[in-house]
Amino acid sequence: HVQLVESGGGSVLAGRSLSLSCTASGDTLSSYCMAWFRQAPGKGREGVAAWDMDGTTNYAWFVKDRFTISKDNTKNILYLQINSLKPEDTAMYYCAASPLHCYDWERLGLYQFWGQGTQVTVS
Predict the structure, then answer these.
(1) How far apart are CA 110 and CA 89, in angstroms?
(2) Residue 119: is its pLDDT beyond 90?
(3) What pLDDT digit, counting tens, does each position of 66-88 carry?
(4) How confident is the model at residue 35, as a pLDDT?
(5) 10 Cβ contact list (under 8 Å, min separation 6)
(6) Per-residue pLDDT at 22
(7) Which residues, including other chains, have CB under 8 Å from residue 78's CB and lie 6 or more apart?
(8) Which residues pair with 97 in a beta bridge?
(9) Alpha carbons 45 and 108: distance in angstroms, whole number
(10) Which of 10, 31, 80, 81 could form a disulfide linkage to 68, CB 3.0–4.6 angstroms apart?
(11) Coil, helix or strand for 40?
């Protein structure tokens, strides 16, 4: 099984940038559909971006070019770069892994493995 640990969150001012990391152990990320989700207080968990095994990327409609997902296979780390942060980006950010392709990447049930999350607060 793959274990996932997120890091890089914090409290930042609107307009700034953050780079979140999801470090994997126990297996290689290239064997999974990898995704970032977020959950704001009082709201459901929503997909932000995904990276499929073949390198295909997917983004949620609200990303609007502010978010970039990337992966370092040598370090086994998934990244999420967030630029021009807005208060509405405040949420717990999670990474997730599925042994299946990302065809239905926004569906929570697709993912078998989750990290514990990293908090992003924008004011």
Answers:
(1) 23
(2) yes
(3) 999 999 999 999 999 999 999 99
(4) 98
(5) 18, 119, 120, 121
(6) 98
(7) 21, 22, 24, 29, 34, 36, 51, 69, 70, 71, 95
(8) 34, 113
(9) 8
(10) 81
(11) coil
Residue with tokens 């977020």: 38
**Residue entry with tokens 């968990």:** 45
Q: What angle do CA 34, 36, 39 make, to 5 degrees?
A: 145
Both structure tokens of 117: 């999350």
Unique residue bearing structure tokens 């926004």 = 106
In this structure, which amino acid lies at residue 114? Answer: W
For 103, the 3-state DSSP assignment is: helix
Tens digits of per-residue pLDDT, 18-66? 999 999 999 999 999 999 999 999 999 999 999 999 999 999 998 878 9
